Sequence to fold (564 residues):
Amino acid sequence: MVFSGPIDYKPSLVSALRGYNAARFKQDLIAGIVVGIVALPLAIAFGIASGVSPTIGLITAIIGGFLVSALGGCSVQIGGPTGAFIVIVYNIIATYGLQGLAIATLMAGIILVGLGLFHLGTVIKFIPYPIVVGFTAGIALTIFSTQINDFFGLGLTNVPSEFIPKWGLYLKSFGNTHWPTLITGIVSLLIIILMPKISKKLPGALIAIIVVTAAVAILKSVCSDMAIETIGDRFGSLPTDIPLPHSPEINMATINLLLPSAFTIAVLGAIESLLSATVADGVTGSRTNSNTELIGQGIANIVVPFFGGIPVTGAIARTMTNITNGGRTPVAGVIHAVVLLLIFLFLMPLINMVPMACLAAVLVNVAYNMSGWRTIRAIFHNPKSDISVLAVTFILTVVFDLTIAIEIGLLLAIILFLRRVMENTEIKAYSGELDIAEGTEAHAEVLDLAKGVDVYEIDGPFFFGVAQKFDDMMRISMAEKPYVRIIRMRKVPFIDATGVHNLEVLIKSSHDEGILIVLSGVNPKVREVLHNAGIDRIIAREHICDHITKAVAIANYMANNRTK
Fold:
């Protein structure tokens, strides 16, 4: 992994078009049409749940989906609005309005492009799995909570955004359940659940919307007082024109306020898109260019705010639908965006008739699929530290804020990781004799240590946590002050600034006490760090040895001469 060098940007569409033929286009065409149909109800539902109109959800899927496929590094990725963003988008709109959301999304896009340009595509994959599971499950529960009002037809207008007050209000209001609305939601949910058992190729969400919308329309024509709320009832007549691009007003005060939210959007987008791409690669055998994918996702998130859109990322469900229907190049993703555009231009009046309870059922099913309860159950068999990270991230996501959850979850994971490294890093002390083959499968080879020569071996990285542990051991390990201290570093893969500082302090304080320091087994990378830090200017260069035999020979010679 490198953080500099040539820009790693090679869109999959460019390579896919080389040798492209009619047979491939036919497969991509079929897959694109199917994915476009599947994406329709999800784009509408995610838009509404995020606190914007269905139109904005569709516009995001059209523009963002096109750009992700055209400019990304995964050949089968389908981009658009996803459930992961609902919580953060809703909170940003509630606090800063649509203008704030546009600025946060724009900044998130810039961050994503930066991650790709600095070759950090693989780093995102190292975010601990319990954190991903924790905030994904927390998002799922939050999405489920936001749909109770529409699913039960409670008719609440000012529902608190916080989890606990929201459920407090729900519990007081269940007596006002509108039974026709609840039945509409239950029927929709049953269709979504049962449809895959009938045919895996028919999208359950779309079938539910078509069947239930038609049934509600018929019931309303027969019984005019059937008050089942539809999209048209809540949002009015939806526009069918792509809005003209407009630039949000950006200033430093707004940037400072929204930077944490932008960071959260970027991290979520990176994780979800690269996770989706990894799953897709496992199925298709292709290989996603992670850096290109991040740049493509970033460009999409830079562009969509100018059209009023919400954040975009790769969507696992839609990507898998693309694969199972034969899509193998980004052309399928482009076609999916065109299909959504045609629906937007010509079928929006029909979308006005969709019941809100039906969309709530779609999102309840999305929340269940996101919850990952089987994964959570499996993680509970892992070490307690993993369970702690998952639980803290989950609780913070649900009760407080997704931004706080990610930040504290990452901090907790880092602390627990450092603790594990410190626990597994050993520091041993030797005097009298040293078996230089200890810890290997080689035969024992013992070196005699002259009187006054002590050896301290560090087994693990010499970073800030271990540096303090080493310093403490140096103070208490040997009762008698030696003449020479050998610091054996054969198992030190790297050393950080704190390790270098502690080593420098040890060398200087030892010299003040008349104790010489010899370094042994220093690998080339560590030697370079020590050279750059000037360690070879306070210790003789020949006292930085690449093997313990040389170090012991030097130390014994100095100790023997010292005692004469």
Q: What stands out?
A: Residues 342 and 397 are 37 Å apart (CA to CA). Strands lie at 79-80, 313-314, 426-431, 433-435, 446-448, 453-459, 484-491, 516-520. The chain has two domains: 24-370, 426-563. The mean pLDDT is 87.
